[in-house]
Design brief:
By secondary structure, the protein is of the alpha/beta class. Helices cover about 35% and strands about 25% of the residues. Helix 1 (about 20-40) crosses helix 3 (about 75-100) and helix 2 (about 50-65) crosses helix 3.
Length: about 300
């Protein structure tokens, strides 16, 4: 019998922010991932990278500022660096947890490029803040380079576009490893955003919502289920009000209705619901679970989360 395939999208809560936090969180998250593998799922993992890529971008910008003879590091390269160092901790933590359970399975991280549309409206309206807080003089220098900045508490920050994922360059490699029953970590941080220019891929000055990339990954792999780990127990409507209502289940039609009504906050829950809608599509089989790890970050608690199906 063909194994069920599941894509697990790890949020910030499952990874931490600093290097020590990430290493500790990866060990705990590995236990939840190993539970799915023990249940005989084919598992593909993707993850967020917000704090990590921000740290890398800040470090590389500061290095270039102090040593101007060095070339500035593009956003796409910072994204690639974050994929490598998060994947390194995750694959080792998962491998160790599996071996502790007597499960022998290769765990691999694939440096993943995700194609975006150069005409995506997001490029005309950048919204994602990255890197350090700058003073006005540094902000003006960024603008001279053609970059966008926005005023924040304490100064200015650079902002970049958040286009939607169109395709995944390394999808055949990811699928081959997954079909060989290996554990794959891919599309970290939404993937490295690239523009297809004839036979060449050009890194884009952008970031991709990791939930939308997770949905695209699950879709292209024809996965049975997408699990999005986040910081809340369940999806809620009327969130933050006296009428807040957590949802155990949600139909695809309800998800579309609530999204259109503005029930979900941009940049947090809305991309997760968009990913669920795109992934499920017309399928009567596919499902999405939006949930969180338990308080010990060691398993996905039974009865927790919101299940979305057609």
């Amino acid at each position: 019998m063909k194994k069920k395939k599941i894509v697990i999208a790890l949020g910030h809560e499952a990874l931490g922010s600093t290097l020590p936090e990430q290493q500790a969180a990866a060990k705990k998250t590995a236990k939840a991932v190993a539970d799915f593998i023990r249940e005989d799922y084919q598992v593909v993992i993707t993850h967020s990278n917000g704090p990590q890529v921000g740290m890398i971008h800040t470090a590389m910008s500061e290095f270039c500022r102090i040593y101007p003879e060095y070339t500035a590091t593009p956003t796409s390269v910072c994204s690639a660096m974050s994929q490598g160092y998060i994947g390194y901790d995750l694959q080792n933590a998962i491998r160790t947890e599996l071996l502790n359970r007597g499960i022998f399975k290769t765990v691999s991280t694939i440096l993943t490029q995700v194609v975006v549309d150069p005409y995506d409206e997001a490029f005309y309206h950048p919204t994602k803040a990255i890197g350090r807080v700058m003073n006005q003089a540094d902000a003006e220098e960024e603008e001279k380079k053609g970059n966008h900045v926005v005023a924040v508490d304490g100064g200015f920050r650079r902002i970049v576009a958040a286009p939607k994922p169109v395709d995944i360059v390394e999808i055949d490699a990811i699928r081959t490893l997954s079909d060989a029953d290996q554990v794959v970590i891919a599309c970290g941080g939404g993937g490295i955003p690239v523009l297809a220019q004839s036979h060449r891929l050009q890194g884009a000055s952008a970031v991709i919502e990791k939930d939308l990339a997770a949905g695209k990954l699950a879709e292209l792999l024809d996965a049975d289920m997408l699990v999005i780990l986040t910081s809340v127990d369940k999806v809620c409507i009327h969130y933050g009000t006296e009428d807040e209502k957590p949802l155990d289940t949600m139909t695809l039609a309800e998800a579309k209705k609530y999204l259109e009504a503005g029930e979900f906050e941009e940049g947090t829950m809305a991309p997760k619901i968009e990913a669920a809608i795109d992934f499920i599509g017309e399928s009567a089989i596919r499902s999405v679970l939006i949930t969180k790890l338990n308080k010990d970050n060691t398993e996905i608690s039974g009865g927790m989360g919101t299940l979305i199906k057609k």
